[in-house]
Amino acid sequence: GQQVMQIPQYQHVQEGEDFTTYCNSSTTLSNIQWYKQRPGGHPVFLIQLVKSGEVKKQKRLTFQFGEAKKNSSLHITATQTTDVGTYFCAKGTGGYQKVTFGTGTKLQVIP
Amino acid sequence: NAGVTQTPKFQVLKTGQSMTLQCAQDMNHNSMYWYRQDPGMGLRLIYYSASEGTTDKGEVPNGYNVSRLNKREFSLRLESAAPSQTSVYFCASAEGGELFFGSGTQLSVL
Fold it and tell me: Between 20 and 30 A from B31 (CA), which of A43, B56, B63, B94?
């Protein structure tokens, strides 16, 4: 199956600036998940989106699932140094059971 | 609760040696996974097990075998290690989509 592509690959922002990463698929997705991996750590689940056009918020993080269910985005408002890490989207297929990851966006926050 | 436990945390092998990475979860999850992550790269699915007694190939299964020993344990075996298998290996378990990861095994094949 097609891997989910993420852009950008890297992003450096000044602390306090906003950040957005995008996840794009050539095929319709049944669901999309987002994970954060801190340097030297393991991925940690952030959220799962399943409905077309769905928008979910977690404090400064806003997650969107596109109307056509082919793309998703993660937006961070007013970045902090604790936001540093790599953000991955992941798609579930085969009844959610086969989970494959996007290419990731590495975020650096400059204090 | 320990969550997902992987052993060992570090391992160095010589080309051609074999070894088994162990993974156990205590969350009573049905699904378990093995991923590899190369430096600066994303996670690639090696094998997964949707439930006890079943295993399926992921994106990069060549050179690996797995065993779902019971509901708790899912092991990954390298029969003849190659330098291309130098990577960080993550085990994960899931229920309802959300993956819980172990802390990883850093494997170097010389």
Answer: B63
